[in-house]
Design a protein that fits this description.
Its cofactor is S-adenosyl-L-methionine; [4Fe-4S] cluster; Mg(2+). By secondary structure, this protein is of the alpha/beta class. The protein contains four helices and nine strands; from the N terminus they run βββαβαββββαβα. Helix 3 links the parallel strand 8 and strand 9. The mean pLDDT is 92.
């Protein structure tokens, strides 16, 4: 059984797959307590892999699944990924990198907040808060993204975005990732 906060169909709002239609499976629970996290960890239901597959079949046209959280590596396993592949989905995961992901993922995004154990991913997404130096944590990635931290304050967010842009201009290894789903008011 998996503790799932929600399953929904939307657009990927961040990183390399921005704008891509996707089914999100948001797991409840995390091993970190980030102040800017947008997941309600108290609300979840326990469901089986069969129930997850049944729930996502209605969105088969998306062909792209994002396992997110909370921290999906605490629950997602090979059985789930194999079941999603059997339905024809490409399976991506967004993780904090503190635990090795299960085998078989098609895409791995790591967004580290503390020293991760993952050393290789497709996409590294670091949250930029303007206070601490940018750190790639020694992770090798195909793509490196900086994402301005959403503080909930429009003025502060704009200043962080500008500072992030200036950093990227001086450090072109990095690319800008904006939370477009929030910008357009879409979940």
């Amino acid at each position: 059984m998996y503790r799932v906060n929600e399953i929904f169909y939307s657009l990927q709002g961040e990183g390399r797959n921005t704008g891509r239609a996707a089914v999100f499976i948001r797991f409840s629970g995390c091993n970190l307590k980030c102040s800017f996290c947008d997941t309600d960890f108290d609300a979840y239901r326990e469901i089986s892999v069969e129930d997850i597959v049944a729930a996502i079949r209605q969105w088969k046209q998306a062909a792209f699944i994002v396992l997110t959280g909370g921290e999906p590596t605490l629950q997602a396993d090979k059985k789930l990924i194999d079941s999603l592949h059997a339905e024809g989905f490409c399976v991506a995961m967004e993780s904090n990198g503190t635990k090795q992901p299960p085998p078989g993922l098609d895409w791995l995004t790591v967004s580290p907040k503390v020293r991760p154990v993952v050393t290789r991913c497709n996409e590294l997404k670091c949250i930029f808060d303007g206070r601490k130096p940018v750190d790639d944590f020694g992770i090798e990635a195909d793509y490196y993204y900086l994402q301005p931290c959403d503080t909930g304050d429009d003025v502060q967010n704009k200043a962080l975005t500008q500072a992030c842009i200036h950093y990227i201009i001086s450090h072109p290894k990095w690319r800008l990732s904006l939370q477009t789903h929030k910008m357009i008011g879409f979940k």
